[in-house]
Design goal:
The chain is mainly alpha-helical and 115 residues long. The protein is built from four helices and two strands. It has helices at 16-30, 33-53, 61-90, 102-113; strands at residues 13-14, 58-59. It starts with 12 loop residues before the first strand and ends with a helix. The model has no long low-confidence stretch (mean pLDDT 85).
Length: 115
């Protein structure tokens, strides 16, 4: 009777770039909005290419995709925020005009700021 030999298959490793993309995407929402988003997008695309070219040796496509989504959303919100700020300036408004009670706050702070 012959015994079949079991040869363990090497386990696929998670792509480091995919992890960096996800972490950068999360960081972009809390600490470094623009820098974190750019890093998340760049490393996300690099990770997906690396995973695709590895022919199954690397995993983490979902992590890279999540990092890409977080990064692109943060970039879109940053661009919208900058456009909104520019529109306010073009209309002759300062951003503090949009804050409720900004005038009262200014009057309250004026003696302390030397105005």
């Amino acid at each position: 009777m012959s015994q079949s030999q079991y040869t363990p298959q090497p386990m696929a490793q998670t792509s480091t770039l995919a992890i960096v993309s996800l972490v950068s995407g999360i960081v972009s929402w809390f600490l470094l909005p623009l820098i974190g988003a750019v890093i998340a997008v760049i490393t996300g695309h690099m990770a997906r290419r690396e995973i695709r070219d590895s022919l199954g040796a690397l995993t983490g496509d979902g992590l890279a995709l999540a990092g890409l989504i977080l990064g692109y959303l943060q970039l879109a919100l940053t661009v919208l925020g900058v456009c909104f700020f520019i529109a306010l300036l073009a209309l002759g408004l300062t951003p503090l005009v949009c804050v409720p009670f900004a005038n009262e706050l200014g009057l309250w702070l004026a003696p302390y700021l030397g105005f």
